[in-house]
Amino acid sequence: MSEQGLLKAQEKMRAAAVDETAITVFTHYYRELERGATGLIREAEVEPLTDVAQLADVETGPRERAEALDKTVLLRLNGGLGTSMGMDRAKSLLTVRDGKSFLDLIVRQVRHTRATTGARLPLVLMNSYRTHRDSLEALAGYPDLPVDGLPLDFLQNAEPKILADGLMPAIWPSNPALEWCPPGHGDIYPALLGSGLLERFLDLGYRYAASANSDNLGAAPDGRIAAWFAASGAPYAAEICLRTPADVKGGHLVIRKRDRQLILRETAQTASDEMRYFTDGERHPYTHTNNLWFDLEALHRALTERGGVLGLPLIRNEKTLDPTDPTSPRVYQLETALGAAIETFPGATAIAVGRDRFLPVKTTNDLLLLRSDVYQMGEDAVPRLAAGRAPQVDLDPRHYRTIAGFEARFPAGPPSLAQADQLRVQGDWTFGAGVVARGTVTLPDTGRPERVPDAAQLP
After folding, report:
1. Same domain, 289 and 383
2. Are 350 and 239 in contact (CB under 8 A)?
3. pTM
4. Contacts of 306 (CB under 8 A, 6+ apart)
5. pLDDT digits (tens, 9 = 90+) for 113-146
6. Domain carrying residue 202
7. What span, in angstroms and rounded, lies between the C-alpha atoms of 323 and 338?
8. Of 357, 377, 395, which residue sits at a domain end?
9. Which residues have C-beta within 8 Å of that of residue 115, sequence separation ≥ 6?
10. Residues 127, 155: contact at Cβ < 8 Å?
């Protein structure tokens, strides 16, 4: 049955004009699924990573920084729709500050770095078919952005969802789009190869790539890291930072005992009975930022030698075919993680960076912080803490989870949080203008809509 399932899936992908490199990679992971691979990494198989190079100790000169940046391509993962926050278009188009979206601010970061260093520094998005059009329309207002005739994006591949019962490609006539899924952001490597962009970068004299999520404005172009990576001679490097309570479920690097290789472990690769180890911030003190650096020559060599299959560990993601219908069939999505490539490159390394390099916006809690006076943003469009540290924000998801609900409850903008340690909102509260929060603030659930008056001082 599974052999027939693979053939049907391959036929489906070819009929949809999916790139042959992507089909080869999908075939590899389908075989892994057949063999019962789950991608689980047991705690007994690894050791925590505690001894790591620190960016604070790196010393580089302006010439080295500019030269390294001039050989660097900026890649941004831009395939997400922000569905967890109720969005139906590219998450990077969400307004962050002063009427500017993530994409607007990323462009400002790139322009500023080009102006101050002279580096070419192309920006290329990895879009999905759902984010491609909107994102390029947004970037059309920046005619100076493309360089060297390079495109502003390339497309992430798509693959069939596989029925957990029988391993056949899923069929859902009422909404055929639900039959497909992205292969995870680890698809960036075969997508770069299959699109021809990887060879194009090399032909134009680029040697390095710096990738990050488009919702992380902390991952601005950084000449110090570029120069450090160039001097290291490493084929691959990951930025990590000290964990906070907000990172307990984020991925982290560990050392595989059998060969001392650095590997990435994600939540989906952790057995449920071992989550206590995974979330232990003292045992595993660093979180993986998904800010990654790789040598384009080393990547091209590895991909061509392996027929496009880099060999990242499978993440078998089990879901319902229709995410909104719990009675729909169970399916497997065969995924890989971008950061898992660290284990495929002997000599790969990591560098510990400050928390300022890791400011992802995954929830409206994060968005409120980034919009508030906790952060300041200069001409370089890099968010910097105005206070000593960011407070913890916990907004009631029943009312604030979606962007629509969030915006409706902060019609006059965010409260001042620069002097706050914690803001916890329970229930349905709408904030007036000029609200200031200090110390620890908890707004209780009264069972009815409430309002924080204009100019209120909390607590």
Report:
1. no
2. yes
3. 0.94
4. none
5. 999 999 999 999 999 988 999 999 999 999 999 9
6. 2-357
7. 24
8. 357
9. none
10. yes
